[in-house]
């Protein structure tokens, strides 16, 4: 059993009680809500005549259903309009802060909470969205919950939970030029499998992790859930504290020293015990791309598509199913695969540094004929900052569309979606069947820079060919 | 189609009924309920939309469309069932279709918790046992089976297999305290004590 890890410490500090029926009661320091998984929770509260316990600890925004072309109200889709107006009504009724459209702070929930300085080390953070693991980048224990649990957090600011095991993923070496945080996490999931993390929290550590920026760390932790780990985290360090200094308004200058002491105190001890440890060498990772229907079906850009019969026993069936769905040929290279749609955005890769990386590839080049390419900033703040740097112009001049913030084509609960059997190069997090809105639409996951390169080439290509010095 | 609206309540000790076998690893919640059906402010209509795209693709040959499986309440799956999105719409859709218990090699974490919050046990079985269970059911879909949470068995009149459920969820279900809301609220006074040990709650002002 693990001990002395950040997970153990945060768990112990937030544990309120052992429940008579089994499980522990865990206090939730920050609760994030959005329009998709909260309405039924508020309805359940009303049904039970319950109030919101700590409205100041819940923060709301709207992201999944918002259109990214015209955000004029009422929305063209009456169901989307109903969801947003229900959220607005619930927030007003329960005095919950809502960062709505055109507030300057609206965006994908996992992009705005860090931006607003809400996500901090040592917190427990819950949200009715599986990518809540993102906030683990700050050394928080952050995890997705279902709607019944959203109800419980609203009613009690706590949850009935069972403790996870902890696996440390030690990443040695350094990522090479043209290889990004996205490639690293796709590689980890490929190595450990999509269910490798079930029952575990993932602690990402080691030299290759320590040098990552906060935004890169968010990309890593965001996809812990794709490896089956409900939460992933990185111990806070100087990089974390520097980010927080810029983004957190609430902690007064004179209290900063106290904050630092506490944040350092919750880090994993050097002699912490883990339930499991894994080592990965970052220097050997190539730009990585998924070819199948699970995020674990990834290969290096210069590898050939796997032969199902040569795979491990438990991967054969899903590989065959993936080939039937994806219409790709075993043994062929993934490079050169023609692309219909290129999507840059999402809670995985919709932050400023992602847009900068993609813009540096497309600058002075043009999107290939017949490719639809678009950029969806993760938040209003990201959009504003990107425009200030002129990134929108770079994308527009290259033939990309520049959109308003939202979840967009990551999950297609809005007008952005694939049609028919279109195939996309996508900086999002899931390549499940039908994920991008068409029942037979196909998704190849990769870094934003790789998406940019695919847009220019019109097919899958190694982004390193676009980077000088390679 | 008439769906079972007699949802779980109180002590969950045994699940009895017909079984439905759905083979395949890594069946994600986008497949269980595609995102477009999440555009709703109530869970009410989800039962009919369960596996909508998979069923459409198989044109009536999906296990959820097989008339032999009508009324089934136990779903037999393989590994990592329910991975992906945290949408409770997935277990809600299964529950509203009629599922009251699941047996598989393993379940995704969030899906498992969502099921528990609805009083639906997800029990695990070894790969070998699961293969035997699947073939027994496929031979005779009309047989009724029982998941016994106390004994951790899955059985019918002439067969019995060992299944497992973690201690915490097992207790919650058999004690009838899986719906934790009232227990959580009753500890409200304990929240106040946290301010000493969690200085972030006061922005490190104390």
How would you describe the overall organization of this protein?
The complex is a heterodimer of chains A (470) and B (206). By secondary structure, chain A is α/β, with parallel strands linked by helices. Chain A has 2 domains: 1-284, Aconitase, domain 3, CATH 3.30.499; 288-466, 2-Layer Sandwich (Aconitase, domain 3). Chain A has helices at residues 6-14, 39-47, 78-94, 109-115, 147-156, 181-192, 207-210, 214-222, 238-247, 256-265, 313-326, 346-349, 352-362, 380-388, 391-397, 448-457, and strands at 15-18, 24-27, 30-33, 58-61, 97-99, 124-127, 141-144, 158-161, 165-172, 200-205, 231-233, 276-281, 288-290, 298-300, 341-344, 372-375, 401-402, 423-426, 442-445. In chain A, the strands form 5 sheets. A 5-stranded parallel sheet of chain A has the order 5-4-3-6-7. A 5-stranded parallel sheet of chain A has the order 17-16-15-18-19. Chain A has a 4-stranded parallel sheet with strand order 11-10-9-12. A 4-stranded antiparallel sheet of chain B has the order 1-6-7-8, with no helix packed on it. A 4-stranded parallel sheet of chain B has the order 2-3-4-5. At the A-B interface, helix 2, helix 3, helix 5, strand 8 and helix 10 of A face helix 2, helix 3, helix 4, helix 6 and helix 7 of B.
């Amino acid at each position: 059993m693990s001990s002395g890890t950040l997970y153990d410490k945060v768990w112990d500090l937030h544990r309120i009680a052992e429940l008579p029926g089994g499980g522990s009661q865990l206090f939730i320091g920050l609760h994030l809500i959005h329009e998709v998984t909260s309405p039924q929770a508020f309805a359940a509260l009303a049904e039970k005549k319950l109030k919101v316990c700590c409205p100041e600890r819940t923060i709301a925004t709207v992201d999944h259903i918002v259109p990214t072309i015209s955000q004029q109200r009422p929305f063209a889709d009456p169901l989307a309009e109903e969801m947003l107006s229900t959220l607005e009504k619930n927030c007003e009724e329960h005095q919950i802060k809502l960062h709505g459209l055109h507030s300057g702070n609206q965006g994908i929930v996992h992009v705005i909470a860090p931006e607003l300085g809400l996500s901090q080390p040592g917190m427990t953070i819950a949200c009715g969205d599986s990518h809540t693991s993102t906030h683990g980048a700050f050394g928080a224990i952050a995890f997705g919950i279902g709607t019944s649990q959203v109800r419980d957090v609203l009613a009690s600011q706590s949850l009935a939970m069972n403790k996870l095991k902890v696996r440390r993923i030690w990443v040695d070496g350094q990522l090479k030029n043209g290889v990004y945080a996205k490639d690293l996490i796709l590689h980890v999931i490929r190595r450990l499998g999509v269910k490798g993390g079930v029952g575990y929290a993932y602690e990402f550590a080691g030299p290759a992790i320590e040098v990552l920026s906060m935004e890169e760390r968010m990309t890593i932790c965001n996809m812990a859930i794709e490896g089956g780990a409900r939460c992933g985290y990185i111990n806070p360090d100087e990089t974390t504290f520097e980010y927080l200094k810029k983004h957190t308004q609430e902690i007064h200058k004179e209290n900063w020293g106290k904050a630092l002491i506490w944040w350092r105190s919750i880090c994993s001890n050097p002699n912490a015990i883990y339930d499991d440890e894994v080592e990965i060498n970052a220097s050997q990772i190539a730009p990585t791309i998924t070819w199948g229907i699970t995020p674990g079906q990834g290969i290096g850009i210069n590898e050939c598509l796997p032969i199902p019969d040569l795979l491990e026993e438990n991967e054969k069936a899903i590989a065959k199913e993936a080939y039937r769905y994806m219409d790709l040929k075993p043994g062929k290279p993934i490079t050169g695969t023609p692309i219909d749609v290129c999507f840059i955005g999402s809670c995985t890769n919709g932050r400023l540094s992602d847009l900068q990386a993609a813009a540096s590839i497309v600058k002075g080049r043009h999107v290939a004929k017949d490719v639809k390419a678009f950029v969806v900033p993760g938040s209003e703040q990201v959009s504003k900052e990107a425009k200030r740097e002129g990134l929108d112009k770079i994308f527009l001049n290259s033939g990309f569309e520049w959109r308003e913030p939202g979840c967009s084509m990551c999950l297609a609960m809005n007008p952005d979606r694939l049609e028919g059997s279109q195939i996309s190069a996508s900086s999002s997090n899931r390549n499940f069947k039908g994920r991008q809105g068409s029942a037979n639409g196909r998704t190849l996951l990769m870094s934003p820079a790789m998406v940019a390169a695919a847009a220019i080439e019109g097919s899958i290509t190694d982004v390193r060919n676009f980077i000088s010095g390679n | 189609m008439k769906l079972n609206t007699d949802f779980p309540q109180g002590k969950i000790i045994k699940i009895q009924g017909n079984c439905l076998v759905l083979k395949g690893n890594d069946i994600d919640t986008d497949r269980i309920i595609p995102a477009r059906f999440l555009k709703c402010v109530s869970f009410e209509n989800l039962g009919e939309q369960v596996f909508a795209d998979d069923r459409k693709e198989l044109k009536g040959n999906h296990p959820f469309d097989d008339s032999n499986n009508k009324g089934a309440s136990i779903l037999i799956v393989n590994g990592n069932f329910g991975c992906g999105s945290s949408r409770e719409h997935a277990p809600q859709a299964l529950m509203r279709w009629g599922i009251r218990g699941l047996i598989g090699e393993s379940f995704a974490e969030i899906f498992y918790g969502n099921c528990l919050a609805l009083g639906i046990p997800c029990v695990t079985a070894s790969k070998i046992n699961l293969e035997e269970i699947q073939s027994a059911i496929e031979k005779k879909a009309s047989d009724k089976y029982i998941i016994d949470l106390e004994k951790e068995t899955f059985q019918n009149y002439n067969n019995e297999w060992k299944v497992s459920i973690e201690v915490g969820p097992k207790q919650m279900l058999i004690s009838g305290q899986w719906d934790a809301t009232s227990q959580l609220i009753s500890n409200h006074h304990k929240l106040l004590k946290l301010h000493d040990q969690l200085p972030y709650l006061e922005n490190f002002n104390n």
